[in-house]
Amino acid sequence: MTTITIGLDGANWDLIGDWLDGGDLPNLQRLIDDGVGGVSESCLPPLTVPNWKCYATGKNPGKLDVFRFDRIDTKNRQHVFHDATDFKSAELWDYLNDEGMTAGVINKPSTYPPKDLDGFMVAGGPDASETEYRSLERGFATPPHVEEFLREELDYKVHPTPMISPTEKGDAEVEAVLDLVDLRFEAAKALMEREEPDFLHLTVFYSMALQHYFYDEEPVYRAWKRIDKHLGDFLDQDHDILVMSDHGTCYVDAVFYINVWLQQQGYLSVENNIDGALRKAGITRERALSVAKRLNMVETLSKVVPEGIQKVIPWDEGVKRDRVLSILDWDETRAVASNQGPIYLTLQPDDPGYEDLRTELIEGLEALRHPETGKPIVKAVYRGEEYYEGPYVHHAPDLILDQGDGVHTSDAIGPNEAIADSGVWLGGNMPEGVFLFSGPNFRSDGLTERARIVDLAPTLLHTMGAAVPDDLDGEVLDVFAEGSEPAERAVRTRRPLSGDREAEETDDAEVEERLADLGYLE
Questions:
Q1: What is d(CA 20, CA 22) in angstroms, rounded to the nearest whole number?
Q2: Which of 30, 212, 344, 446 could form a disulfide with 72 if both were Cys (CB 3.0 to 4.6 A apart)?
């Protein structure tokens, strides 16, 4: 018997509730009827990174030293991007290996570059990148024979082609994502049979991109139908199965341009820049791409127009991601934010005005209301060292936002107003995701429980008879069937393993571009 985790990026029960009620997802409904689960609460910010690592380690980001895909280094005035070597913790499969069990990991974000396991690891999008020394044709999986099998027998792809993006979300891009859903499950089933791991983790990631751009429209329905069909292949085999997500997806009915608000309040200042002039003249990436597509010159222009010029052309929404930092008047800026709301101050914590500035920002943000509906734009604002716990809290953003219901926070500078009714995404991120345990060892109570994402790793370890490290934030959940072996066995604890890895060279620009295309860096 293999214990299996099937991770569905951005899944939540409200999104798929009507499809479950209508009988359109029969295999998932069967798992619900035979299992126990409910809502899983992710760590803030509710993003792919850090939450896939919060799941795998059972820890909050303050013990991982990574708080999102990237961070803003206000001292050196630059974006810093993270890869798998930056996380300071062992993961649940390392502990399984240490107790003599094998593990396979497929497509989990934040696993690039892949590490050696007693089993196998296949790195996942969106952060897996090419460099001068590694390409996505090779170097995406360990050990070599697994990568060779995936490449030669399954024509395995790490990323979809063509890549879906705010300006490219037609039939070809949707089909590429759906094909990748099929490929992920085919790889999981093939490697289960070939390698026979004791534990298998599979993440389906790019279906989340469909949810961002279509929310619950037809492309997303098609993706969930395919996911459900593949889930059926894991039933009737007496596997213990966990279905879970890193966070949930909500319908976006308000966009909060946080850097515009900071600018309006006098906390952020920009210099005169060509980006703004181009946008006022009606020259944006979306419009340029539309013209290039009509002239069938997209590929040609991408090769002949220097990258530096391409990056200067703003999006319809305005200046985003690394361009935000390039247009700041740093001497007059006291705060700048990333999308989903982490705020970084240019003042250092030992500055006499640091704490007063944080208090001002907290009070101002928590008082914000939608001008028409009166709904809170921000539920709460936390000081980084108060929300997180661990040895790396001093590296956390200065402030963390818990976004209001239905609110997506964008870092774009350019809109005239800080609050809008719509933006790039139809579906935004929210902390409430899903978890569902099903199989011989679990109760059949349906969706009656609530958990934290950090509770999943210790629960899996205990399910498989492994000891739980004593530095985890999560706890073993009460989900086991009466009389089952895990229910009768006391939880064992152990000292943690070191999770430090040697850093490797990565291509930040390539990763940044992919994240931006998907809308993660707005």
A1: 5
A2: 344
- Cα–Cα distances in angstroms (integers) from residue 118 to residues 7, 99, 199, 504, in the given order: 21, 11, 11, 21
Nearest to 245 by CA among 276, 208, 288: 208
Inter-CA distances, 446 with 35, 124, 229, Å? 6, 30, 20
- Cα gap 479→272, rounded to integer Å: 58
Q: Could you tell me which residues come within 8 angstroms of residue 336 by beta carbon, excluding any fewer than 6 positions away?
A: 72, 74, 259, 262, 268, 324, 325, 328, 343, 344, 346
As a whole number of angstroms, the longest Cα–Cα distance in the chain is 71
Cα dihedral angle (323, 324, 330, 332), rounded to 10 degrees? Answer: 140
| Higher per-residue pLDDT: 408 or 320 | 408
Q: How far is CA 388 from CA 59, 344, 392, 418, in A?
A: 10, 15, 9, 28
Asked whether residue 274 carries a pLDDT value surpassing 90, the answer given is no
Average pLDDT estimate for 471-475: 98
Confidence class for position 290, pLDDT limits 50, 70, 90: low
- Token code pair at residue 363: 């009070």
> How far, in Å, are 117, 169, 173, 189 from residue 176 at the CA level?
30, 10, 5, 20
Which residues are CB-contacts of 30 (< 8 A; sequence separation ≥ 6)?
235
Partner residues linked to 409 by β-bridges: 256
pLDDT digits over 139-148, tens only?
A: 999 999 999 9
Structural domains of the chain in order of their starting residue, each with its CATH number: 3-249+430-518 (3.40.720.10), 254-273+319-422 (3.30.1360)
Whole-number pLDDT of residue 301: 53
Kindly tell me if the per-residue pLDDT of 66 is higher than 90: yes
Across the strands, what pairs with 168? Answer: 165
CB contact burial 17-52 (16+ within 10 A = b; e otherwise)? eebbeeeebebbebbbebbbbbbbbbbbbbbbbbbb
The mean pLDDT value for 180-206 works out to 97
In one-letter notation, the amino acid at residue 109 is P
pLDDT recorded at residue 299:
59
Q: pTM of this prediction? A: 0.90
φ and ψ at residue 107, rounded to 5 degrees: 70, 20
Total length of the chain: 522
Q: Which residues pair with 88 in a beta bridge?
A: none
The Cα 203–Cα 191 span in angstroms is: 14
What is the model's pLDDT at position 268?
Answer: 98
If you average pLDDT over residues 367-375, what whole number do you get?
96
Q: 255: closest CA among 212, 309, 302?
A: 212
* Statement: residue 522 has pLDDT above 50: no
Q: Using CA atoms, how far apart are residues 110 and 6, in angstroms rounded to an integer?
A: 16
Single out the residue of 401, 418, 397, 390 nearest to residue 260, CA to CA: 418
